[in-house]
Every structure is written in structure tokens, then in C-alpha cells.
Amino acid sequence: MSSFSKSSTSSIYGENDSDQLRRGPWTLEEDTLLIQYISRHSEGRWNLLAKRSGLKRTGKSCRLRWLNYLKPDVKRGNLTPQEQMSILELHSKWGNRWSKIAQHLPGRTDNEIKNYWRTRVQKQARHLKIDANSTTFQEIIRCFWMPRLLQKMDTSSSSSPSALSQNPTINSQPFDHAFHHQGSASAQIISHQVPYDRGVIDHQELNSSSDSEHGIGTSTSCISSSESMNFSQVSQFSEYPTGGDHFHASNNDSSEYNTFAKDFCQFDSNCYDMENISQPETMPAPLAGDFNNWVQEYDLVDNMWGAWMNFGNSGTHADINEFN
DNA sequence: AACCCCGGCAACCGCCAAAAA
DNA sequence: GTTTTTGGCGGTTGCCGGGGT
Question: Could you name the Gene Ontology cellular component terms for this entry (predicted)?
Fold first, then answer.
């Protein structure tokens, strides 16, 4: 149990001098005190501020409260698709450099971005039983999640040029091109972009596509990094079959496939939930027990399944045509 | 209605680097 | 040049509200 809960479950003040600092949630009075003090003396010198303002808080606590909550330009509310897109893209470049990422999202704090990543993005990784920092998951984000956001961005700004082109942090061209020239359904984008039926990966293409300076979408290949094709992460997919034989189970008799399908559909629905949009009519979620029909109509899941098989087969590619 | 579970988020902690003494 | 203080960062915790049973 943390010291925070200790103080909050008993008394907010301790027994001795050093414990006379308040902890836990801020009250309206404390917020007012802090705002008033900063309006008169400006921010900074947080320890001094804590002493002189009359707040029984540490300087660090005051700073945190101000920067993450009280500061006037702190933007509150749900992250827009554009902001989500930026986070995904910038995190792929910089990793957990939350403050650096936050600098590119005006009004958003590093804490908020960190929370978004942990509660939303990592949740998807857990559903798919993948390490959120793995190359594989990054590819899934790039191939699956980002096109959804692009779709949302474009539909929400239909009167203006492509929403993506308005985001300076994203190299929009390839996705933009894919979006406008391959149809609006994300399933189409994905099925065209994912070369899962390729047994050999073009490493020249891989190298160009993993150009970190340009970030996402610099290639039409979704399984793009050479690292991801080393199959060194097979152990991560131990719950999924590693033999090519399983892939023939396009009928309902493959429990492994069904497990994968369930997880994938959960991932899918979570993506929709996250963006607060409804699934397009062109790609409805499959009904329970009707998954195979859905698969045959929309080649989304079997593409992903093919990807698993590619990983699991150590390079022996699965023939996704067997599905259709 | 009561209980449980879970996700979101505010706030804390430890560590480290830069600035100040 | 050394020590102390301050500020910033990333990781973690636990409260709280909503939904499900």
C-alpha cells in the first residue's frame, strides 16, 4: 500500500512535522490558492511557492497540479483522432518519451498521453497477447489502427483537405494515397497493403519503410521491418499454432483459429470503441458462430491470421487463398 | 439493492540532470 | 569543484464511477 493511500484512508495529515503535508486529491480551496498565488507571482520556484502560498503541499505536488490540471491552456476531454494518430506515430518514433510527444500535442500533458497509451493502446496489445512495444504490435497499429483513424479523420473533415495532410507530424502521402485510391473501407486498405501472402520480403523495401524520420506509411508494406521478420518473437505467439497445417482449418474445426478470431474481433471492436465510431456498414462485425462467412466476405481477419502463420512458420508463408 | 469488476485518470514515487549555493 | 536544491521525467498506484450480475 502506498503512502498515498495510508494518508488518504486515515488522516491527510501525519503525526510529525514532516508529515504535515497534505496528499491525495486536491480540494477546490487548494486549487484556488494555487491559482491565486501563480497569478500574482507566476509559476516556478515550486518549493518556495508551496511554502509561501499557504498550501500544505510539496513543491512537486503543486507543480504537477498546475501543469497537468490547472494551467489555463491545458486541453481537456477526449483525444481527437488527429491527436491519437500523432501519439501512435510519435510513439513509434520515440518510444515512451511522453514529454517529448506532448510537445507536439498542444494543450495535452505527458501524463494524459501516458495514460492514453497505457489504458487504450496497451489494452489492445493485451487482447492480442503481444508485447505493446514489439515490432509486431507496431505493425498492427500501423496497418490496422491508423487507417481507422485516418478514416475517422477524413470523415470528420470532409469539407477540408485530407485531415492527415493537416498534421505536420505525419507523412501523409502513402496512407492518403491508399485511402483515396483504394476505396474508403479500411478492410480494403489493409487487404491491399498487407503482403502476408508473400513468402519473401523485399528487404530494400523494408529498409525504406522503416525510416524513422518519416515515420509511418512510407511503404505499402505493412510487415515492414526486417527485425519483425526475423521471427525471433515466435514465442510471443505460443498460444497460436506454429504449423502450416493449422492454416488449412478454414472450416470451423480449428480451435486455434477460433481463438485467434475471437481475440482479433475483440481487438477490432475495441478499436471502434476507442475512436467512438460505429463500424462501417461495409464491414459489420461477425455474429457468433458466423465468423467464417464474415471471413470469406471480408478478408481482414484471415490476413491477420496469415500474418501469425507467417511468424509461426519461420518464413514459410501460408497461402491465404485457401480461405476464399 | 447490493456487490463485484474493471477502466480511466489523478496523483504519487524514485531517479536523474541541471541549476544554484 | 563540491554539495544541495530544484525541476522534469517515466513508472506505478489506488480512488472512483460506471456497468454487469
Answer: nucleus
Global pTM? 0.56
Nearest CA among A267, A277, A276 for reference residue A300 = A267
| Domains (range + CATH), chain A | 28-70 (1.10.10.60), 81-154 (1.10.10)
Alpha carbons A97 and A287: distance in angstroms, whole number: 40
Q: Give the closest residue to A222 by CA, choosing from A195, A202, A204.
A: A195
Written as one letter, the residue type at A324 is N
Would you tell me how many other CB atoms lie within 10 Å of the CB of residue A160?
10
Long-range contacts of A19-27 (CB under 8 A, 24+ apart): A20/A56, A21/A56, A21/A57, A21/A58, A21/A61, A22/A55, A22/A56, A22/A57, A23/A61, A26/A65, A26/A69
Q: Choose the most confident range, by mean pLDDT, from A12-26, A101-115, A236-250.
A: A101-115
Q: Which three cell numbers stand for residue A244?
A: 502450416
- Strand B nucleotides with an atom less than 7 Å from a protein beta carbon: 7-14
Strand C closer than 7 A to residue A65 Cβ: no
The separation, in Å, between residue A162 CA and nucleotide B16 C1' comes to 42
How far does the CA of A112 sit from the C1' of B9, in Å? 8
Query: A174-230, pLDDT tens digit by residue?
Result: 333 322 333 223 333 233 332 222 222 233 322 333 333 333 333 334 433 333 322
Say whether the CB atom of A58 is under 7 angstroms from strand C: no
* Confidence label for A158 from pLDDT (cuts 50, 70 and 90): low
